Amino acid sequence: xxxxxxxxxxxxxxxDEELRAELRxxxxxxxxxxxxxRMKLAVKDKLxxxxxxxxxxxx
Length: 59
Prior knowledge:
mainly alpha
């Protein structure tokens, strides 16, 4: 696993923790929830692209 992939995975996990914390609040900010979800999805897409690029390179 490369350093970049590892950092993206850490960032994805951090966003997930922030999202869960926001959802637990008594008055959650739905704008922040949507922003965190979009950011989390963008990181997931980057990870998928990296992994698929590696699979193609190893074939």
